[in-house]
Design brief:
Length: 326
């Protein structure tokens, strides 16, 4: 009996990353041992990103390009999910980079163990640095390596260690699993990857982990989770409020076990603290209070939603580790 080919849809939202997009495209199209389609959504880019994508599509039939008005990264990923046709889904950001055997390694591991989700391992590299460092430091170090767990156990094992992987670009997800549970990204909010990862955890019965460092995350100081601009800080704060709603909603589900409920509420309180401190130094900022009810009462979250006079950046990374500020 012939095994199914290792096939995958790579989803790449693109917005004003012309300077680094070529490196990402080259690294994806050079992947070995897989049948891939690369779906790139150009999200209203105002630089030369669309021209680069169209040139890549003209040269390589595996590249599909869709241009849309600027709607945000979640809308771009959702549009790509609707177009995806392969058995696995992998996400990449337009300014990042993948090692040549990343997709083959992740997919083969997932197939071998009948996984819903494969969690990979990645590393930071300098804003303009390529090739990647020879011995990079891993972004995550305390995953349940060499184990297969369900999604809730994944959170229970990693959240207390500040090591829960919510970076969507380190997740290889079975397409049928995404379809079965109607998984999509919430649009119009920041930190959408946290809510997506929560939904993965709530539904996944089999999650496995690949320790090998295969994905390079480029630290972009202009990304919305790194920018110190008042608008970006306000968006981050509002995003944390959305995360709180999702976490508390899951905690209040009658079927949620007590230990998992406590974990979710602890994460909600972390998000509350991050929202409150996004613009803690902004004396002129107007605020809004969102009250969310939890199983043990309610708490209020104050977050900056308007002008800031002295915005202070958080430690969050684009798509980065939630417990460390992502």
């Amino acid at each position: 009996m012939t095994s199914a080919p290792l096939d995958v849809s790579i989803i790449v939202p693109v917005y004003n990353c012309e300077a680094w997009l070529g490196a990402l495209l080259d690294s994806v199209l050079a992947q070995t041992g897989v049948d891939l389609e690369l779906i790139a959504i150009c999200d209203g880019a105002t630089d030369g990103s669309l021209a680069l994508l169209e040139a890549a599509a003209a040269h390589d039939a595996r590249v599909r390009v869709v241009a849309q008005f600027n709607r945000g990264v979640s809308a771009s990923r959702n549009a790509s999910l609707a177009l995806a046709r392969r058995m696995e889904i992998v996400f990449a950001d337009g300014d990042d980079w993948m090692k040549p055997d990343a997709l083959r390694t992740w997919i083969a591991y997932g197939r071998r163990h009948a996984l819903d989700v494969v969690v990979g391992s990645g590393f930071n590299f300098g804003f303009d640095a390529l090739p990647a460092p020879a011995q990079p430091a891993p972004l995550f170090t305390r995953q349940p390596w060499d184990e297969i767990v369900d999604g809730r156990a994944w959170m229970l094992r990693t959240v207390p260690n500040n090591d829960w992987v919510v970076c969507v670009w380190l997740q290889c997800v079975r397409h049928a699993f995404v379809v079965a549970h109607g998984l999509r990204f919430d649009e119009g909010v920041v930190h959408e990857d946290i809510v997506w990862s929560l939904r993965l955890a709530l539904h996944a019965r089999r999650v496995g982990f690949v320790r090998e460092l295969l994905y390079g995350y480029r630290r972009n100081p202009e990304s919305i989770v790194n920018s110190p601009s008042p608008k970006a800080v306000a968006q981050r704060a509002a995003g944390y409020l959305h995360v709180i709603d999702a976490l508390v909603g899951a905690a209040r589900d009658p079927g949620t076990a007590p230990d998992f409920r406590r974990l979710l509420l602890r994460q909600a309180n972390r998000a509350k603290a991050k929202a409150a401190t996004c613009c803690i130094s902004c004396a002129s900022a107007s605020t809004t209070t969102t009250r969310v009810a939890a199983s043990r009462g309610s708490f209020s979250t104050r977050a900056t939603t308007a002008r800031c006079c002295a915005a202070r950046p958080t430690r969050a990374r684009r798509g980065g580790r939630f417990a460390a500020g992502g």
